[in-house]
Design brief:
Helix content is about 20%, strand content about 15%. The chain is built from 6 helices and 9 strands, in the order E-E-E-H-E-H-E-H-H-E-H-E-E-H-E. Helix 1 packs parallel to helix 2. The two termini are about 35 Å apart.
Length: about 250
């Protein structure tokens, strides 16, 4: 069996990292032989979508379980879709974590245990007690975000932002930073949203929530990867789970 462990370093003697999407290393461990592969996390500096990108990376590696400190809702959903079970609240050395897993001491989590954007900035979780979003605006306070309308359906609004202040989805300097960092991941490649046409209903919600106008509707939603900043707003809002974040050539 192969399991992934989020780690602060490239060895089994390093500590389990509390962050999933922005951990420094992933250790892919064969639980039978304890042989492992250390993968430096290419998503650690992403301005948005790091958890989703890292989840897809783990799915591609064919791991059955993820051992980590914390996992947000978007990454948890992607891992679940790939059949990867998540164990949260793991601490100590990576080797000890795997040994405890082998001994059956861990139970898989039924849901994410932290909010989206956990670990951004200085590496501290978003404060729940202070009741603020990443832009510093009180949750539920008026803001210039994308708002769900009070009537039928969803609409673009300027009323209550429900915690989605301009900093949350990557407007302004944060959005530019995300695009720059994503572009730097490889020559001619960047992280960007991709719509799976077979799941898309063409509802247009993703068009409404995209902060940079990177999405249009044809037969289904289509994303311009050059404009996309991989902020993952569309991933969070899509009712059909039709949008994923992937590395794309531009």
């Amino acid at each position: 069996m192969k399991v992934a462990v989020t780690s602060s370093g490239p060895t089994l003697d390093d500590q389990v990292e509390a962050r999933f999407g922005r951990c420094p290393y992933f250790l892919i461990v064969d639980t039978d032989s304890m042989q492992f592969e250390a993968l430096e996390n290419p998503n650690i500096a992403l301005g948005g979508g790091a958890g989703i990108q890292s989840a897809q990376m783990m799915a591609e590696r064919g791991v059955s379980h993820l051992l980590t400190g914390n996992c947000g809702p978007n990454a948890f959903r992607v891992l679940g879709q790939a059949g990867v079970e998540v164990v949260v609240g793991v601490t100590g050395r990576a080797r000890e974590a795997v040994e405890r897993f082998r001994a059956g001491e861990f139970a898989s989590a039924g849901s994410a245990n932290v909010q989206s954007h956990f670990g951004m900035g200085a590496g501290e979780p978003q404060s729940q007690a202070s009741n603020v979003d990443l832009s510093g605006s009180p949750i539920g306070a008026p803001g210039m975000g994308m708002d769900r309308g009070g009537g039928m359906g969803r609409r673009r609004g300027m009323g209550f932002a429900m915690g989605r202040g301009t900093g949350m989805w990557g407007f302004g300097s944060r959005g530019q930073q995300a695009g720059t960092q994503a572009s730097a991941l490889g020559s001619g490649r960047k992280a960007a949203a991709l719509v799976r046409g077979e799941k898309c209903a063409g509802c247009g919600i993703c068009v409404d929530v995209c902060p940079v106008g990177a999405i249009r509707i044809e037969k289904h939603a289509v994303v311009n990867p050059t404009l996309c900043t991989a902020c993952a707003a569309c991933v969070s809002e899509c009712p059909n789970e039709a949008v994923i974040i992937v590395q794309q050539r531009i």
